[in-house]
Design a protein that fits this description.
By secondary structure, the protein is an alpha/beta fold. It has helices at 28-44, 68-81, 94-104, 111-122, 126-141, 168-202, 219-227; strands at 14-22, 48-57, 85-88, 107-110. The chain has two domains: 14-117, GTPase HflX, N-terminal domain (Rossmann fold); 123-202. It is 47% helix and 11% strand. The chain starts with 13 loop residues before the first strand and ends in a 15-residue tail after the last helix.
Length: 242
């Protein structure tokens, strides 16, 4: 399977959205609210929602999150809907994500991956893009094992592969680590420039105003009204980030 979370170069993909919830009384209303939020996040990535539901969770299974019976039940729902993606509104370990992809035969995205992909699409400033890329690489580094099915194959030679016997996953981890180091250096430079600009603004007698609110609360709309700007404003979660 592709290491990309969502392929932007293909038609909209069908998705199943699953919100796991522990079997506890009084959680049904909040669970439905969380499910609606997860659907909103999926829609923000232009996914087409084929089905969405709350999945009771008696206990967290280390290998698959859900128990065997629930994994099979959800697999049948995914197959019947002919979905391309399963969105699990929870934090999955790399092992859980890999095992669910094998069981369901579709791409599986957890809540963290979903939000990171949205951030990657919405970030506009240089600092925002660098921060998102840094977070995305850190996330992917822990999940490299699921993107390679040939880890046992040793590849030797010089150049990019490094020393003899270095596996593909070791190469990828090293390359990602190098990118992370560079991104951190770039962020330091961007923040230094931002601090200089902030210092220059503070020398002028103008007040600074901050608009604070939850995602999709209307901050961008209010900002446009106050300043006559044209910041993107849509009825969508995380439509604007910076």
């Amino acid at each position: 399977m592709s290491s990309k979370l969502i392929d932007r170069e293909v038609p909209p993909q069908g998705a199943i959205v699953i919100h796991p919830v522990r079997d506890e009384r009084g959680q049904s209303r909040s669970a439905e609210g969380r499910l609606e939020e997860a659907i909103g996040l999926a829609l923000a990535l232009d996914l087409e929602i084929d089905d969405a539901f709350v999945a009771p969770l008696r206990k967290r299974v280390p290998a698959t999150l859900f128990g065997k019976g629930k994994v099979e039940e959800i697999g049948r729902i995914i197959e019947a809907a002919e979905a391309d993606v399963a969105v699990v509104d929870d934090q999955l370990t790399p092992v859980q994500q890999r095992n669910l992809e094998k069981a369901w035969k579709v791409k599986v995205i957890d809540r963290t991956g979903l939000i990171l992909e949205i951030f990657a699409r919405r970030a506009r400033t240089k600092e925002g893009r660098l921060q998102v890329e840094l977070a995305r690489l850190s996330y992917e580094k822990s999940r490299l094992v699921r993107t390679w099915t040939h880890l046992e194959r040793q590849r030797g030679g010089a150049g990019v592969m490094g020393g003899p016997g270095e596996t593909q996953i070791e190469t990828d981890r090293r390359l990602i680590a190098d990118k992370i180091v560079k991104l951190k250096k770039d962020l330091i430079e961007v923040r230094r420039t931002r601090d200089l600009q902030r210092g220059a603004r503070q020398r002028h007698p103008y007040p600074s105003v901050a608009l604070v609110g939850y995602t999709n609360a209307g901050k961008s709309t209010l900002f446009n009204r106050l300043t006559k700007a044209e910041v993107m404003a849509e009825d969508m979660l995380f439509a604007t980030l910076d």
